[in-house]
Write a structure and sequence with these properties.
- With about 260 residues, the protein is an alpha/beta fold.
- Helices cover about 45% and strands about 15% of the residues.
- The protein contains 8 helices and 7 strands; from the N terminus they run βαβαβαβαβαβαααβ.
- It is globular, with a radius of gyration of 17 Å.
- The N and C termini lie far apart (about 40 Å).
Length: about 260
């Protein structure tokens, strides 16, 4: 028996067609799980499916879905259930970097858009996924995993990032509330507070930002995407069953520097 075997398990991962989400999806696929990607870009979705298929014994599908739209999430979750029959794990990973404005320049539209994707989007995904998980638990098949992609900015200050930091701090609160409320059904909820990883989003900040971050991180390097594979599998597996309500920094020690 493989220690971390997800055969027969189905995982949804929003925003799983690139960056951190795709890195985690690779681990889930290699562990034998079925993987369903919910993301907006059809071309990137197709490329992610082509890459992930064949990595493990499970199947892979991708659906165009905007987590800002409740009806789109409901339809996508229904399609995943129609294809795989169950959802065991949900990675609420989809997110945007925020408006990048100083506090005196905040606009209601920019603020609301960031929270609509980063916080409300995760809550709505959890809403539809847990309806299925709770029904399953009432039929005697308890259990489920909710894992949110949060950020170290939720506990640290960064210039021109108040909307993003607030959206991720709220996501931490959602995680703790979900863990408490859903424990009776065997459903756990945790958040991963990622530090500096090289992605399309961080690339926009330029090389000087990457150099500055690498000097500030105690381990003196950005996070490696390959390491996210095992992290995702651990939180998706039964080996994390007694961990819930936690907001875990994954940042090379950045939050203590």
């Amino acid at each position: 028996m493989t220690l971390f075997d997800l055969t027969g398990h189905t995982a949804i991962i929003t925003g799983g067609n690139g960056g951190l989400g795709l890195a985690m999806a690779r681990g889930l696929a290699k562990a034998g799980g079925n993987v369903a990607i919910l993301a907006r870009n059809p071309a990137k979705n197709a490329a992610a499916v082509a890459e992930l298929r064949g990595l493990g014994a499970g199947d892979v599908m991708a659906l165009a879905c905007d987590v800002a739209e409740d009806a789109a999430i409901e339809d996508a979750v229904g399609a995943v259930l129609g294809a795989f029959g169950r959802i065991d794990v949900c990675f609420a990973n989809a997110g945007i970097p925020g408006a990048g404005t100083a506090i005196p320049d905040i606009t209601a539209e920019g603020w609301d858009h960031t929270l609509a994707i980063n916080t409300r989007g995760a809550a709505l995904v959890y809403k539809h996924v847990t309806c299925h998980m709770i029904a399953r638990a009432r039929d005697g098949d308890a259990g489920g995993k909710l894992i949110a992609t949060s950020s170290g900015q939720s506990i640290m200050g960064v210039n021109r990032s108040s909307d993003y930091a607030a959206s991720k701090a709220a996501l931490n609160g959602l995680t703790r509330a979900a863990a408490f409320e859903l424990a009776r059904y065997g459903i756990t909820a945790n958040a991963l507070l990622f530090g500096f990883y090289e992605t399309d989003i961080t690339a926009r900040a330029g090389p000087k930002f990457a150099e500055w971050m690498s000097r500030r991180i105690p381990l003196r390097r950005p996070g490696d995407h390959a390491g996210l594979e095992g992290l995702a599998v651990f939180f998706a597996s039964a080996h994390s069953d007694y961990i819930t309500g936690q907001c875990l920094p994954v940042d090379g020690g950045l939050c203590i520097s």
